[in-house]
Structures are given as structure tokens and as C-alpha cells.
Design brief:
By secondary structure, this protein is of the alpha+beta class. The protein is 34% helix and 26% strand. The chain has one domain: Alpha-Beta Plaits. The chain has 3 helices and 5 strands. Helix 1 crosses helix 3. The protein is globular.
């Protein structure tokens, strides 16, 4: 398994818009590119951090090289409108290969 970690700063007041767009974008990326999905976190500084899991680096690289585009202009526009800062070139802050996986899946439904 392969992991990519990203971050975004969001315009004040657009946090819920960002979360909705990120959620829908993640669903589309999973369907189109074969990711395992991702988790969205918020750090103490208010920055959103996404942790995305992929079957392998080649699958992630294919999607990344295509900028993970998808045909949903409304979702893309909402995402772009909410974001005010990303790392240079929107590169992930980490890419890693999983060497030991001790994470368990929750039984209760995920929250959005």
C-alpha cells in the first residue's frame, strides 16, 4: 500500500464548503483512479490535512500525473473557491510506502 499526504488552508467561513467538495472529490478519485479513499484531518493551526491510501505507488503516480481530474465542474469549482493556500505545485507533503499496517476499520459509519 502507498500513502500520500496533502494539506490546504481554507478561506475563513468556507470550511464546510471545502469539506463537502473534498468528500465528493475523494469519492470520484476513488471511482476513477482506484484509490482506497482518504481521511481528512484538521491540525491545531486550522490547516486541513488529507491522508490518501493507494494500492501502490504506480496507481497513485498515474492519478497524480493527471492532476486527479474528474468531470464534476461544480465540485471542482467549490474546492478551488474554498482553498487559499497549498504547498508549491500542490505536491504532497509526504509520500510513503506502508511497511506495517495496524490500523483497524471502525464499525460505526464515518462522519463527514
Amino acid at each position: 500500500m502507498f500513502v500520500a499526504v496533502y494539506w490546504w488552508r481554507v478561506h475563513p467561513g468556507k470550511e464546510e464548503q471545502f469539506i463537502r467538495a473534498w468528500t465528493r472529490g475523494t469519492e470520484l478519485i476513488r471511482e476513477i483512479y482506484g484509490s482506497y479513499g482518504s481521511r481528512l484531518h484538521r491540525d491545531a493551526d486550522g490547516r486541513f490535512v488529507g491522508y490518501a491510501e493507494w494500492p501502490d505507488e504506480a496507481t497513485w503516480r498515474y492519478a497524480f500525473d493527471r492532476k486527479m481530474t474528474y468531470e464534476d465542474p461544480e465540485t471542482r469549482a467549490a474546492f478551488v473557491d474554498a482553498v487559499c493556500e497549498v504547498p508549491p505545485d500542490a505536491d504532497p507533503i509526504f509520500t510513503m510506502t506502508v511497511v506495517s499496517d495496524r490500523l483497524t476499520t471502525r464499525i460505526e459509519p464515518a462522519t463527514d
